[in-house]
Write a structure and sequence with these properties.
heterodimer, A: mainly beta, Immunoglobulin-like, six-stranded antiparallel β-sheet, 1 helix, B: mainly beta, three-stranded antiparallel β-sheet, flat
Chain lengths: 334, 164
Amino acid sequence: MFKLPFFTLSLALFALCCQSALATGTAAGLVITNSVVASYSIGAVAQPDITSNTASFTVDELIDLTLTWQDGAPVNVNSPDINDALTFLLTNTGNGQEKFNLTRNNAMLGDNYNPLNGTAGSIFIENGLQAGFQSSGFNADTLYISGVNEPNLVADASVRIYVNSDTPNSLTNGNVGDVQLHAASATTGAAGATSGTTLAGLGTSGTDAVVGNSSAQVDRVGRYIASGLSVQVSKTASCTPAPANCSKAAAGTIITYTLQVALAGAGAASNLIITDPLPAELTYIANSLKVGSVSKTDAADADNGQFVSNTMTVDLGSPIAPNTFSITFNAKIN
Amino acid sequence: MNYSRMTSLLASALLLSTLSLSAFAAGSIELKSIAEVEKNTTNKDGKKETKRIIAKKVPPDGIVIYTTSFKNVGNKPAGNIVINNPIAEHTEYVADSAMGYNTDITFSADAGKNFASPEKLTVTSADGKVRPALASDYTHIKWTYKGELAEGKTSEVSFKAKVK
């Protein structure tokens, strides 16, 4: 099919220009042919053109791949936590269909802790049903099982690989944990071979396989960071008049309560609402509620503070850590 | 026995067979094209050698050397010999690789319509812009043999192409 008559070549070349711009290489197994035309004269008389034999060869399979870590920044995890994914992109940059084996290494040097293989499974392959990683449910991505479902990619095809990990407890915020993903050609003898190594007969459709610049394997590291969001609320009291620690406060003493709300780690705390019911021995001092230095009305209204049914409630919304808030109100000892 | 008559009969029979053969070969020039690759090997003395072997399987980015030999198998000198080699699909010409003893070499970047030397060759894009042609734009190579190729003589031309 590639031995084209001379006059149709221009069309063929136009078609080729755009195809080759996209493809990594000419497809493995393709037969490339060459044939030559000559014109000549004998004694100034032009003779009919002659055509040579056709010289042809087959394009071998080049085994090559790329692997990139896609998250762009360390993935936030809590401590402990389960089923958090690092996202990698595996691309077959060779010119024939190829299977790739995947392995992970949790024991990397230069980090603070070793992530653990995820509870739901250690490596997943994007199944295309729903973007991003799903460890379970209707659109759960495909659990990778070595020897069963290696990514089998045609030339230029890519697939997302999820390295799914659990996080040990007792980590300090800012601790990082690295995982290396290793992707390697499943063709016998390819992974780790010197670039240019020829594997006779092991290429696509019976061609030879030639190991590319990647040596048919790539390692890439992704990183987790323990940034678990924590909210701490501490409550202090001061009295007017002021006996020591308000511990022996007499009836009629005004107590100023201060609630310090501290967000540590990273990320946003969604719908953070602080409530504080008053015991029966105390009477709330009307309109004494403040968030920071801003007074809030007692009614359940547009502002984010209220004192209703003997309970103080402040809605802090979804603040981003790190952050602190101070809530104060006054009550009188009955 | 009339030996002289027999000889002349034989001679005419030989001539006839030659004529019919050359008619079958469609001319007095025989063209042969081969594709080869260079292979690095180590000889028995431990020295590294580069050998040319017939190309059977080539990976992408592999370089193929095409050689065309042309032989005058007729009984008269052949003139105005022009060898035209379209550059195969999925391959591209390797710059400065075309060779040929006693030939003028020109190239086409428009599917064989116009031929020129590399420094004069241009490509016109769809929007009408004209730029110098790159080796990868070449579609054909043409060797024009200077003078005549004597009967019985062989010459050859060659170039390199890279598999895309």
